[in-house]
Amino acid sequence: MHVFHADVNNGVIIRRIIKVRPQLRGDDDDIYSPQYMPIGPYHLDISSQEIEKEKMRSVRLLQSLSDEAGLRALMEKLEPLARKCYAHGVGDMMSEQFTSMLLNDGCYLLLFFVDYVSSDDRFATCDDDEAPVAAVSRNTLVRDTVFLIENQIPLVVLQRLHEHVTGATTSVVDCIAGPVQVLLQKMFFISKKPRPVPPQPCSNLLHLVHAYFEPTVVPVPGKKSNGRRRRHRSTGRWRRATEYLRYANVWFRVREFTDDVASSVLDVQLGRGGTVWIPRLRVDSNTWTVLRNLMALEEQEEKRPVTAYCLFMSHVACTSEDVELLRRAGIVDHFLSNDEQAAQGFAELCRGVVMEVDDGDRNYLRTMWHELEERCDSRAQRLMGWFRHGQNVWVAMAVLVALILLACQVIQTLYAAAGRP
C-alpha cells in the first residue's frame, strides 16, 4: 500500500487531510462523516444557517480580541499552504470561499478548546447542557471536530490564529494537548498520568490524538523461542480468545491503568506463564468511530500500532463466546445490548483494512503472535489447556482416570517382571 510521506513547506510539516478510500469506507459512511458540525471543505454540504451563525460568533469574538481585518488577511496569506494540506477536491473552491472556511472553522475550533477570556479547561468543566449549540450534545461536537479524519483543518491555521490573538509565538498545541488528554482519559483510552506534548509536530487534531495511542509497554522476555520455526512461518491471523484458552493454555487478564504510569489501551503484552495482559477497552457508541478513523490515518504512516491492535481485538473477540470471556476478565467493558452485538462490532472493525502483518515495524504485536503460535504447537500446552479449560469436564475426568489406571497397570507389570526369577 502507498504510504504518504510528510512534506515540509517553509518549516511546516504537511500531512494531507484525506478522504477515506471506498474500500475502507464501505457502507460505514456515518463513521467518517460529521453528524452536525462540518470542519474543512469535505462536508460543507451538511452545514446550516445555525452552524454558520455559531462559527461567525467565534470569529467576532476573536476579532474583538485582536483586529477585524487582520484575521482575514492572515487566512488569505495562509491559503496556498492550507490548500496543499488537502488531498482531494479543493482546486475548484474559489479563494474567498476557501479563506472564509479557514477563518470560520479555525476560530470555532480555537474557542472550542481555549477560553481566551477566563482560561478555564473547556473539556474538564463544560457539561453537555453547556454546549455552544444547545440542541447538540458536546459529545457529538467532540466526535465531529476531533476524531473524524475527513473533518479537519491544518493545525498551522490554528497556530497562526493563536499567535495573532495572543500576540505571542507560544504553541497552540500546548493549549490543546491538555484538553485532548483529558478527553482520551475520560474515554479510557489512556491513563490519567499527564504526558508531555508530543515531540513530533502534529498536522491536525486527529494526528494529535494518534500520538497519545502509542504503546508504552516493553515485551517481557519469556522462554527462548524456536527461531528457525519462526523464520519459516509467516505471521497470520490471530485465533479466537477461547481457542487460545483451550488449545494453548493461555490466560487473559486485564491490565489496569495506574495514575502514576503513562499507559495506552494498546499496551497488550504476553507475560510469563502464558498470560496475555490487555488494558480494558470501553466500548460505546463512539469506540468504533475513533478506532476506524485512526486506522484510516495510519494508512499514511510508517508505523501502524492502532491497526495492529484492532486486528488483534477483532480476531480474539469475534464471537459472543469470546466477548463473554473477555468481559468476565474485565478486558471488554461494553454498553451494548448484548455480547453478540459487541462481537459483531469487533468482527467488522477491520473490514477493508489492509496491512503487512509480517512487517515488525508496522505490526508491534508480531512477536507475540509467533509466541502464542508456538504455545498452540506445543502438545503439552494443548493438553493442559484441554484439561483446564475444556467444556466437557466429564470427558476430561474420564481420560484422567484412564491415564491413572494405565499408569497403575504399567507399574504393576514392572513389579511383576521384577519379581520373576
TrEMBL record:
The chain crosses the membrane at residues 393-418. InterPro entries: DUF247_pln. Pfam families: DUF247 (PF03140). Keywords: Membrane, Transmembrane, Transmembrane helix. The lineage of its organism: Eukaryota, Viridiplantae, Streptophyta, Embryophyta, Tracheophyta. It comes from the Eukaryota. It comes from Digitaria exilis. This is Uncharacterized protein. The keyword Transmembrane helix applies.
